[in-house]
Write a structure and sequence with these properties.
The chain has 60 residues and is an all-alpha fold. The chain has a domain of 28 residues. Helix content is 92%, strand content 0%.
């Protein structure tokens, strides 16, 4: 019985799991922001490319 209670006591005092969850959540936020930035830059580059293509097609 003592080993089970000491196991749960040590498990309760261990903070490495909480740090892992915090870093995982932070990584998720950074990943979401990165994807949003890439999508925005991609749309901007596509619009610029289409405008350039249209101008070049209209050139004599």
């Amino acid at each position: 019985m003592k080993t089970i209670s000491s196991f749960f006591r040590a498990f309760n005092e261990d903070d490495s799991g909480a740090a892992f969850i915090e870093y995982t959540a932070l990584l998720g936020v950074i990943l979401a922001v990165g994807i949003a930035v890439l999508a925005t830059v991609g749309q901007w580059a596509n619009a610029r490319w289409l405008r350039l293509n249209t101008q070049l097609s209209a050139a004599p």
